[in-house]
Write a structure and sequence with these properties.
flat; mainly alpha; single chain
Length: 113
């Protein structure tokens, strides 16, 4: 359905996200949130989601004309104004995930059966 023409950074990031996601699954289904696995679960799923959002933002800046006027012609080394906008977008995103993740770790309490 989606032709893959070799290994790309997006595919590599996806594999790393899967590793974090599997660690979260271990925390929930095997360790049952015991001890430190409660916060490990939250952190691994936040990192996994962040990596997917990171790829979304990167590919949006590469392929969408309204974010990058030279979209069909350039790859990761963007034009100078677009690079600044890209850096701001990524900084805001990682800040959001760090703040939201901090509060999620502090507030997360699994339900007792």
């Amino acid at each position: 359905m989606f032709p893959i023409s070799g290994f790309t950074p997006a595919i590599g990031t996806g594999f790393v996200a899967i590793v974090f996601f599997v660690a979260g699954l271990i925390a929930i289904y095997i360790k049952k949130f015991s001890g430190a696995w409660r916060w490990i679960y939250v952190v691994t799923l936040m990192v996994s989601l962040y990596l997917n959002v990171f790829v979304l933002i990167t590919q949006s800046f590469q392929k969408l004309k309204f974010l990058n006027p030279a979209a069909p012609m350039v790859g990761p080394p963007f034009a100078e104004p677009t690079m600044t906008q890209f850096a701001i977008a990524q900084a805001v995103t990682i800040l959001f995930f760090m703040v939201f993740g901090f509060f999620a770790v502090r507030k997360f309490r699994p339900q007792t059966p």
